[in-house]
Amino acid sequence: MTNRTISAILSAFLFLYINPGSIAQTASQEDPLLTVGGKPVSRDEFVYLIGKGSNSDANTPGLSREEFEENLDLFINYKLKVREAEALGLDETTEFKREFASFKESLKSPFLIKNSLEDGELRKAYSRMQEVIRASHILFQFPPNASSEDSLIVLKMALKIKQEIQNGGDINALAVEYSDDPSAKINKGDLGYFTALQMVQPFEDAAFTLQPGQVSDPVLTSFGYHIIKVQERQPNPGQVQVSHILVRVDETNPNSENQARRKISDIYTEIQKPTTLWEDIVKNYSEDPATSKKGGLLPWFSVGNMIPEFEMAAFSLTEIGEVSPPVKTRYGYHILRLENKKPIDSFEEMEDMIRSRILRDSRSTMIQSQVLAIQKARYGFKENEANVEKLRASLNTKKKNEFRPEITALGMGASNLFTLKGKAYSTEDMLIYMETDEVSPKTKGGTFDIWYDRFAGELLAQIEEEDLEANNKEYSMLLKEYRDGILLFTLMNEEVWQKGIQDSIGQRAYYEQNIRDYQWGERVNAFIVKVLDINKLEQAKSRLQGNAYSESLVNEFEEFYKSNDPLAYQTQSGLIEIADDPILSKADLSKSFQEIEADGHLHLVVVGAKVPPGPMAFEETRGPVIRDYQEYLDEQLIQSLRKKYPIKVNKSVKEEAFIALNQ
Questions:
Q1: Domain boundary among 310, 325, 343
Q2: Cys bridge to 286: 99, 142, 245, 490, which one at CB 3.0-4.6 A?
Q3: Which SUPFAM superfamilies does this one have (predicted)?
């Protein structure tokens, strides 16, 4: 059984009418609502399950006494079945354990610290994506194998240039002179437009804190120190699709620049003529082999995906079909035409992409560091710094198989590493973990820091999961709901559903005992022809009128119309129950042929012999019998369980539940 929730499962058995108001959580927690065979069932569980179908509208009435009692009775039946499933050991089967473990693994994710931090980063990134920034920068790289003195010299240089910019210096001119970014000689430090997740995180964080005209302090990234000046901030224009014409410039030919400029100018003039077809111009003149045969069409792109000059020209076009003036890029000269545009996608549409990119950049390390810090604070992590430092000094260059001998030589086999929730963990605990843990090859030759962090991290994660079940009410309720739902489904499948389908002797016995419930009303042999094409009415009447009902009449008419006019008619024939048929219930059954108007169509009816009311044959009603037999088995199961497991209801807690569901 997979992809099943208790909400779906219970709908077949539980809570026929649920429409309470908001649920109070203030009632007594000590006493159970009821006991099932001595096993307590909490008031909170009952209120929670009914509350899942609640309507938060304050104007919607809560449960009446009658509805409350009905739902309590159904809840008791549900808990009886779960109790029986446990008694039968269904919660100890391999299949149950596998499915429950799988659900538990998927359920815990939204409740973990990591998920809430990730979600915060996702939302922050998407919020930033609503804007695009145009910025310039100057990069100051460190020399190879830089010392701390070297780093300080680079930082002082960055601060000096920042001051020069603030004193009125042109960042673009200064970028050409000082920037270690190789592209600065061409773009003068102008990065064009970008949005979230298109720059390394420290650079992005700094840029999004600046307003147009502001200059950052030196920003440290893996590339070096950056001085950033934001030129513009604008709403994100979303995505565009353009087609283009390209005229290349041959850098080895000194005349190529002028030739390309004249050619693109002539093409632009030609495009302005009303009789000119864009596709023809692209095919004849564009020098982009990838697009010239398909009208110059490029894939959709957003800000930051194209070179700045091309991108700015594309996003400056506002009307579909609008053509840009010639644009110079490092590839040559372009003319662009806007083909389509659309706004930025919704958060839900972009969530997977954003998550993937965040987990690939430095944010993932930052998130993990924050998770560990929160876990350590929450669960009382206290490190024995002296022991850890001593082990680090001795083991940080050792391989995995050298740890135990080295620790033994140090006499630190039982030394305390840290305490967690008041429990001490020693070097021996870490060694056992190392010896039983399956690790990637790159970690097998790792250091003390790798193993220590891994050991502590997994313990913290384990304790967080245990803490969820013990202290997070929503999580524990969902977990119990699904657990009991699996047991309920398994029991019902074995004792009711499959038994009802497979027990042919029981089915027939039930049918014979309840034959009065499987009776035909008055029936008649009839042939009903629904005329879909009114022009074919007379053709049908001529074949039916004046003829008695017979199988040969039906067969001959159906063979005729299916061969000649298959769309002209719809037919129904056989022994039909009169009262349940919308056509025959209107018919004068004393006439052998008649025309009846219904549902906007004319129906031709040929009536034969009537058959009086009588019992249905077992084969005729096997489906309804199986359904009713399953209901009977369910009722019998409940009766037997109520005898097997006595029910005791705490009246005062029951009243608390009623009040909670009506507040």
A1: 343
A2: 245
A3: FKBP-like
DSSP three-state, residue 228: strand
Q: Exposed/middle/buried for 353, CB within 10 Å: 0-12, 13-18, 19+?
A: exposed
Find where tokens 């970014």 sit.
Answer: 181
Identify the pLDDT of residue 11.
44
Residues 275 and 204 in one domain: no
DSSP string, 40-94: EE-HHHHHHHHHTT----TTS----HHHHHHHHHHHHHHHHHHHHHHHTTGGGSH
Give the model confidence (pLDDT) of 233-269 as tens digits: 999 999 999 999 999 998 888 889 999 999 999 999 9
281, 338: one domain:
yes
Beginning with the edge strand found earlier in the chain, give each strand of the sheet holding 523-531 in spatial order: 569-577, 523-531, 601-611, 593-598
490 SS3 class: helix
Tell me if 368 is assigned to some domain.
Answer: no
Distances (CA, A) of 316 to 142, 153, 312: 38, 42, 6
Q: Are residues 155 and 208 in the same domain?
A: yes
pLDDT digits (tens, 9 = 90+) for 609-644: 999 999 999 999 999 999 999 999 999 999 999 999
In this structure, the strands spanning 301-302 and 569-577 are unpaired
In DSSP terms, which residues pair with 233 in a beta bridge? 133
Q: Which helix (H) or strand (E) holds 452?
A: helix 448-471
Single-letter code of the amino acid located at 497: W
pLDDT in tens, 553-598: 999 999 999 998 899 999 999 999 999 999 999 999 999 999 999 9
Last residue of a domain, one of 288, 318, 343: 343
Q: 579: domain CATH number?
A: 3.10.50
3-state helix vs strand vs coil in the chain, percent to 5: 50, 20, 30
Residues (pLDDT < 50) of the chain are 1-29, 441, 444-445
